[in-house]
Structure formats: C-alpha cells, structure tokens
Fold this sequence. Notes:
With about 300 residues, the chain is of the alpha+beta class. The protein has helices at about 15-25, 70-80, 90-100, 100-110, 125-130, 155-170, 225-240, 270-275, 280-290, and strands at about 1-5, 30, 35-40, 45-50, 55, 60-65, 85, 115-120, 140, 150-155, 175-180, 185-195, 195-205, 220, 245-250, 255-260. The chain is built from nine helices and 16 strands.
Amino acid sequence: MRIAILSRNKNLYSTRRLKEAGKARGHDMLVINPLRCYMNIASYKPTVHFNGEAIDNLDAVIPRIGASITFYGTAVVRQFEMMGVFSLNESVAISRSRDKLRSMQLLSRRGIGLPVTGFASSPDDTDDLLNLVGGAPVVVKLLQGTQGKGVVLAETRKAAESVIDAFRGLSAHFLVQEFVKEAGGADIRCFVIGDKVVAAMRRQAPEGEFRSNLHRGGAAEVVKITPEERATAVRAARIVGLNVSGVDILRSKNGPVVIEVNSSPGLEGIEQASGKDVAGLIIQYIEKNAQAGRTRTKGRG
Ligand code: ADP
Ligand code: MG
C-alpha cells in the first residue's frame, strides 16, 4: 500500500515509528507536511497538491494533526476523504476530539462516566455555575487546551472566580469541572485501536502538580485496567468516531470518568511503558480497513 503520514515533522518519535512500521510491513510510506498541502476543490475530481505535484495513488493517510493547526489540517484530511482515500481518523472525528465541550456532550448523551462539568457564558452565572459542579475545588479548562496548558486547579471559590474572570477577559471559552481529588494526580491513558485497548499506562503527576501530562513531567508506567475501564475507553473512542485514539480516564470514587479523547495520541510514552509495537498495530489496522470508500461518514461534515 501507499500510505501518507500527515505530519509537520518527520523527526518526531511517533512519525518515525509509523514510517518504520509501515516500511517493515512492506508499504510505501511518505511523510507530508499538511500545511504544505494545497487543494483544488473541483467538482468530480478534487485533488491535493504538494510541491507542485498532485498527490495521487494513495491508499490511506495517517493524520497526525497538531492542535495548533486543527482547522487547516482537518481541511486537508477532508479533501483526501473526498478523493476516496481512507483516513485512519476521519476529519469530523478529529474536529470533535479537539473541542472538549463538544466531545463531552457527545459522551454524556451515551451515558459515559464524566466528571461533573459546567459551561456558561455570562459572568452573572458564575456563582450558580460553581454550585452546579459542587463548589471549590474546581478545575477550569480552556476548551482547546492541550498538554496540560490551560488546565487550572482553583482550590477556593475566590480563586475559581478570579480564573474565570481572567479567562472571560481574554474572551476564551472554558469548562468548569469537579476536581477528582481521589485520582491523586494520576490518570490512565488507554490506547484504543478499532474496538480494542491495545495498551494502557498510568501517568503520575510530579509532586505538587495535579496534571499528569508527560509534557508536564508526568511519569508513565504500564497498568492493568479493569473490564469497566476497558469498555469505557472503547465506547468513548467509538462515540467520538476515532479509529485510533488515546482515551484518558480518571479513577474516581464513582468509577472511571473520561476527561479527554485524543485523536493524535503520542506513541513514545505508550510504547516505552508497555513494550508493545503500537505503530505496527496501527499499520495492521490500516491493512484491514483501508478499502476505498470505507470511511464511516463518507466525508460528510
Ligand atoms: P489537556 O488536553 O491539556 O491534556 P486534560 O483535560 O487532559 O487537558 O487535563 C490535563 C491533566 O489534568 C489530566 O491528564 C489530569 O491528570 C488532570 N485533570 C484534568 N481534569 C481533572 C479533573 N477534573 N480532576 C482531576 N484532575 C484532572
Ligand atoms: Mg490530556
């Protein structure tokens, strides 16, 4: 097969591993910077171009779209879908996963465990919004934050009000969420491919920090997850519509709660913690599923 990885940096661990794993399984692997793809949105024959040439004969694309380029990146993925190229994750699902509010609303409708979460626009509603999620301590989160940036723990009501005021002053949208204290600064990253959790790791925040992101100095170790956690992760991935995802779960006193579903989960931490060839499993998934025209939403917006 001819498979393109849409990534801005061919030296990133995840990009390198996917390329290697594809080659090892006999595929023709390309790495293409999505920001350098341009497109002709022509009727009948939509095309994508790169460096003066049309990119054709692709069997599949692997989107590794960074959060800072979601808009352009998903447009490129969508254009490939219009051409009938199989995308490992569909553009619609990537967009859903990038908006924490949108994905939580979808998950809540289907009864997935979530931390109590509120969303409001007017400063007049701050007081009741805080009551709604059970009062301080609360976590305030920018809707489009990533790698722990824009996630703040407000330990008192006063602190929460200040953070909320500050975010409003910047015209930023944010969620206010119950702080799951009993998670103890740890979360569980479930790496989901298709309808299976292929690897899971527990990430522990460093001393004095509640965010367990590896980019914030969190430490990862392999973990055995419960059947309930496994089922929750697989269902959450499916509801958001991602074939490959990193579903982050907190162990709360009421059972597993999903805090996030990531559409470009990193491979380095999970491969190192689990010792598994996750990149190889992703390539195998593509081999099984990449028939043209097999995308679930058929490129619908
Ligand atoms: P990001 O997209 O920036 O990674 P997350 O929502 O995943 O944002 O939050 C970052 C980290 O903060 C999580 O991995 C988790 O360790 C911690 N965290 C997030 N929400 C909560 C919460 N409601 N209660 C306790 N810890 C949380
Ligand atoms: Mg996260």
